[in-house]
Amino acid sequence: MxxxxxxxxxxxxxxxxxxLLSGVVCGAANVGSTTVGDIVLPLKKPDLIRKDNAExxxxxxxxxxxxxxxxxxxxxxxxxxxxxxxYHLVTKAVRAQLRQGRPTYALKLLAKDPVAQKLKNxxxxxxxxxxxQSYLIEGKIDRAAQVAEEVVKRSGKSVPxxxxxxxxxxxxxxxxxxxxxxFALTARSKVSSAWLVxxxxxxxxxxxxxxxxxxxxxxxxxxxxxYPRTFYGLVALKALGRGYEFNWDQPDxxxxxxxxxxxxxxxxxxxxxxxxxxxxxxxxALAKSGWLSTNDKREVLLAYMIQKKVPSLVLYLAxxxxxxxxxxxxxxxxxxxxxxxxxxxxxxxxxxHALIRQESRFNPHATSHLGATGLMQLLPSTAKFVAxxxxxxxxxxxxxxxxxxxxxxxxxxxxxxxxxxxxLAVAYNAGPGNLAKWKKxxxxxxxxxxxxxxxxxxxxxxFVERVMVNYWIYRMRMGQDSPSLDMxxxxxxxxxxxxxxxxxxxxxxxxxxx
Length: 514
Prior knowledge:
Elements: H1 56-62, H2 85-99, H3 103-112, H4 121-137, H5 141-155, H6 160-173, H7 176-187, H8 194-210, H9 214-225, H10 231-239, H11 255-262, H12 265-275, H13 279-289, H14 295-308, H15 311-318, H16 330-333, H17 349-359, H18 380-387, H19 397-413, H20 421-430, H21 432-441, H22 448-453, H23 458-477, H24 483-489, H25 496-511
């Protein structure tokens, strides 16, 4: 979903590491085109996208970072953490206070609650670190630093969020040496996920550079680059001047195997269910078929689903399947849509795919609890406004993409987005109203990475990161370059921010035909 109303129903477990920098997606579908195409005038915002983010403190403090992100990719698997029932009870009470923007009261509650007093130190400090993050997002940097440092002193690597918050706070205070040390602590934690390790490592490199500890920069870039399907991992690879050899091979499908799959009732049921939007039922049917029992069988089944052009099942199987060399099939992890908008692509095909992959996992019938529908998860009210029609079939893939890309075009021309690719992702998730509000609150912060880390919505921070990873990898798959990735990777070079800003202005001018 993609308007301010989205923030009223955000899931409480998403990551905190995301980046912003300008890039252009507006143009024709052909590679290298700078034509704007049939994009409508700036979006006039109806009431449906004027809702405030009433839960911003909750999002800030209870989306504790990459270590607790919902699993969507193989490399996102977090370290296992066994948490007690008492932890969940206390967390619920603390979050209720954070939802109301009361981190100080939440801290007092944590200190006095009898159940909290019986928690293990690591569990107690895990909750305390969430409160520290709330202070950070609220702009109370000194308080955030104090609370986070208390957690670091006692629980250290067992609560990686504390090191993350302490590192961010020290960065904002200009203490780059301390910032580097705190990010390094988080990067070394055995309970950090790949996303948090790569994020903390990249920020450790940034802070080391700022602190003049140049000999440490390469080490931390290398550590981040070990996770190439994460946001900061991909950026680190580019900063090192390297690329990643994604596996664009397709698994083989023999005639006998295809015939066996064609005749399998369970497989045919799975196809029927998936095409009808019942992906969970399709997965159950696959499990009953016997074709998931070994990696060899999954490879055959994956090849079959690729040929049948069922991207929802292709993506599901891709997470469970490796080739003989132990590598994932990135062609399947980043499948192409078999559907195109009625009028063809008027914005970058890669950004449309990036949004679809994140929003619906290529399920044309996906529906959120707020009513967002279809491949690009459009709210019916938004879709009707964008299409100028009351009769819209949002579960029709071509129609959904047609309206979705038109909405993307409108957002690009919104004054708060101004053709900025990363701000587009923010606005698509949280709405242009919230984007404008956050930009104002943060005084149009020059450092794009810091801007994203300062956004109050944890879901939006996660959304931007994942969409950008999707976008860059789809650009690679489609044989296109990624100037936005180049710019992010060059931020910490001399005058990096100023250079990136200038390049961004030139790209915007090209997109606008100037």
